[in-house]
Amino acid sequence: MDLDWILTLAGAALAVVLLAVSLWRNARPRVDTVRTRWISWRFMMMLAAAFLLIAAVHIVNKLGFHTGRNSIGGP
Fold first, then answer.
1. How far apart are CA 70 and CA 35, in angstroms?
2. What is the DSSP secondary structure assignment for residue 19, as one 8-state letter?
3. pLDDT by residue (tens digit) across 9-60?
4. Helical (H) or strand (E) element with 24
5. Domain chopping of the chain, boundaries
6. What is the CA radius of gyration of the chain?
7. Within 10 Å of residue 22's Cβ, how many Cβ atoms?
8. How many whole angstroms separate alpha carbon 61 and alpha carbon 3?
9. Which of 8, 10, 14, 75 is most buried, by the most CB atoms less than 10 A from its CB?
């Protein structure tokens, strides 16, 4: 297995775990305290989802499918 595959799949797995944890943390009821939240779990969800989308496109490209613009001819 190529190192590129290993890094992509490990990053995608890490993004899935981060997405699940941030979904769980964001869904919990907020306790009214004086302390502020240090991490915005909604932002972490969006960050993990964006990375997972990029990893999925990279995996599709590694499988041999062409995504994106056509570099020969075309607009």
1. 52
2. H
3. 999 999 999 999 999 998 888 777 777 778 888 999 999 999 999 999 999 9
4. helix 3-27
5. 3-28+38-62
6. 18
7. 21
8. 15
9. 8
Angle between helices 41-62 and 3-27 (to 10 degrees): 150
How many Å apart are CA 53 and CA 4, to the nearest integer?
A: 17
Instruction: Write the CB contacts of 59 (distance below 8 Å, at least 6 apart in sequence).
Output: 8, 9, 12
**Cα separation, 52 vs 58, whole angstroms:** 10
Instruction: Give the pLDDT of residue 13.
Output: 97
In 3D space, the residue among 51, 50, 42, 36 whose CA is nearest the CA of residue 21 turns out to be: 42
Residue 56 to residues 8, 18, 33: CA-CA distances in angstroms? 9, 16, 39
Within 10 Å of residue 18's Cβ, how many Cβ atoms? 17
Say if residues 52 and 19 touch (Cβ distance below 8 Å): yes
Which tokens in the block code for residue 9?
Answer: 């799949």
